[in-house]
Known about the structure:
By secondary structure, the chain is α/β, with parallel strands linked by helices. It has eight helices and seven strands; from the N terminus they run βαβαβαβαβαβαααβ.
Amino acid sequence: MESGLFSLSGKTALVTGGSRGIGLALAKGLAEHGANVAIIARTKEQLEAARQQIQTDTGLRRAQSSRKKVWTFPFDLKNIKAIEALFENIVSETKGIDILVNCAGMTVRGPSEDVDLKTWNQVIEVNLTAAFVISQAFCRHRKQVAKAGRIINIGSLTCHGARPTTAAYASSKGGLLMLTKTLAVEWAKYDINVNAIGPGYIATDLTEPLRSDEDFNEWVLSKTPLGRWGQPEDLVGTAVLLASKAGDFITGQIIYVDGGWLAML
């Protein structure tokens, strides 16, 4: 007999950066466990392709009566001032968001001494400030409806340590971890659980150049006890745990899904 411990039936999840890579995998995984999903990304065409993939891969087209809804919202999260209005529009269309997944992110690599402030600010705005602002809107929404909520922030190995040439990215992800802890402590009174997932090296289209670099690829494999790059789908189980009843007593935590990377000296 199913306990419903990991069921997301009746819930609606909002995933930023949900049109490809990790974000798409998480949106699809949450839908597979019963949630309706709304996804935000910059490109309308990629969003439509993602919608079709979610519906096809989760079998949502098989029965009209059991079809889960997938909403798409083209938006550039660099437009910080418009995020609150965007969220209000999303709530209006979806009739409520129960789960927020902050997955959108960007990075620019280069020597720290050469990083210009425009680049620095863009990375911080997308990876950290946008996550904070949309989380604020989510909190106000859950307070208004007087219902519990879940926030899942997608961090990085750089929440734990850094590599050369990643000053802005590592700073944004380190800040995201502390934001996770702070909001978890502050918003527990509203029954909002806030956690983070720290992916290891994940095989996506964005990391293809790194995987194609023979030396870098060998370095990643040598540092990962499980001996492979992660797949976006490897993060789904942890996200479902944190989004569902199974995660009721988990808040303020980061769970690294890294193939053992941080466990090895």
